[in-house]
Specification:
Elements lengths: L7 E3 L8 E5 L8 H12 L4 E5 L2 H7 L6 E4 L6 H8 L5 E5 L12 H13 L3 E6 L9 E6 L10 H5 L2 E6 L19 E5 L8 H12 L4 E5 L14 E4 L4 H9 L3 E5 L2 H8 L4 E5 L2 H12 L4 E5 L5 H13 L1 H14 L1 H16 L1
Parallel strand pairs: 1-4, 2-3, 2-5, 3-4, 5-6, 6-7, 7-8, 9-10, 9-12, 10-11, 12-13, 13-14
Length: 352
């Protein structure tokens, strides 16, 4: 890996930037929006600048790459901040997080006035969303990776003016492992997301350690989280994995246990069969949608799943070769690698 300069939080205009990105993350909504924008920055050939209301988390997630972060002040309009800090920007990417208690706050109508101000200044706008039903958007490119969004994609054209729509689970931005492992390890990989909002890792630790009696287990618990149990010899715990390391460890697993947010999308992208549980109700609906597509065995809300049920479900899955192969076959139909490439190319085309 080449050495990079640390991520900087700036308060004045800096070097020329062609791409301006608005994104937030938090314990409540998770880090998924931040990680997919990190992927975009790494894959697009353009000088980028991040605008955010959560600068410290943003700096943490973007620590692997050289990028500058602009911390937005309370009530500050994004369009003004971009004009002040990135006057040479050609394209603005908006990826506001989903707020479970205030879903309207990330809807199309809630953000359209800001988008209109940005476009009035001659900039192109790419809008990311993972909304469960269509709301009104007008922008240059709209990306919705919610697994049900293919069903209502054309409704977007009725509500607003959009030049290009990408809808469905295949349009998930991910940092693909450059060299997928040729042989799967006899290993269970566990990750409940970077923030693990419901502390599922500690809830299921006894189950995970029971699984380790039979299989080697790797757990990625997220930065700053500690397990409240002594580790068996057959378990390795990672507090943090850089994106390529995470990808390699996930892709090399025989089976994986994940939450049903970004980690479930990543598991599907690497063709790894497994189980999923949800951190909160909206994730639960995503988990059931993925099960309906044959991509996972979903167990429901993690806080309501009995730990011993997790053990039984995992052993049942591993011993059911038909189900294992069916999940693997279903993942090949999604083609997330090509979907991610389409997103990157669409952004690149707007910049150039």
């Amino acid at each position: 890996m080449t050495e990079t300069k640390p991520t900087k939080i700036i308060d004045a205009p800096g070097a020329r930037s062609e791409l301006a990105i608005y994104v937030d993350g938090s314990k409540a909504v998770g880090l998924g929006h931040l990680t997919r924008m990190r992927t975009l920055v790494r894959r697009v050939d353009a000088q980028s600048r991040i605008f955010t209301r959560t600068p410290l988390l943003c700096r943490q997630v973007f620590a692997e790459i050289e990028v500058e972060v602009v911390a937005l002040t309370e009530g500050e309009q994004l369009s003004d901040a971009i004009s002040n800090f990135s006057p040479s920007a050609r394209v603005v990417v908006l990826d506001p997080p989903y707020e479970p208690l205030f879903p309207h706050d990330c809807s199309g109508p809630a953000w359209q006035p800001e988008i209109d101000r940005i476009r009035a200044r001659g900039l192109k706008v790419v809008r990311f969303t993972d909304e469960e039903r269509a709301t009104a958007h007008s922008c240059d490119v709209l990306v919705n990776d919610h697994p049900d969004s293919e069903l209502f994609a054309e409704t977007y054209r009725v509500f607003g003016e959009i030049s290009k729509i990408m809808a469905g689970a295949r349009y998930f931005l991910i940092e693909f492992s450059p060299k997928p492992p040729a042989v799967k390890a006899d290993k269970v990989f566990v990750s409940f997301g970077g923030s693990d909002q419901s502390d599922l890792v500690n809830r299921f630790v006894p189950s995970i350690f029971n699984i380790a009696k039979t299989y080697f287990v790797e757990i990625c618990v997220g930065t700053g989280k500690q397990l409240s149990h002594k580790l068996p010899d057959n378990v390795i715990v990672h507090n943090f994995l850089e994106s390529e390391d995470f990808a390699q460890k996930m892709a090399s697993a025989k089976v994986s246990i994940t939450a049903s947010g970004n980690t479930l999308f990543e598991r599907v992208a690497y063709g790894v069969p497994g189980l999923s549980v949800a951190q909160f109700p909206r994730q639960d609906r995503i988990g059931w949608a993925f099960q309906n597509m044959g991509l996972t065995k979903h167990l429901g809300l993690g806080t309501e799943v009995e730990p011993r049920r997790l053990i039984g479900a995992l052993h049942h899955l591993i011993n059911d070769q038909y189900e294992m192969q069916a999940q693997i076959a279903a993942t090949s139909d999604i083609s997330m690698r090509s979907g991610a490439a389409e997103i990157v190319n669409a952004v690149q085309d707007l910049i150039t």
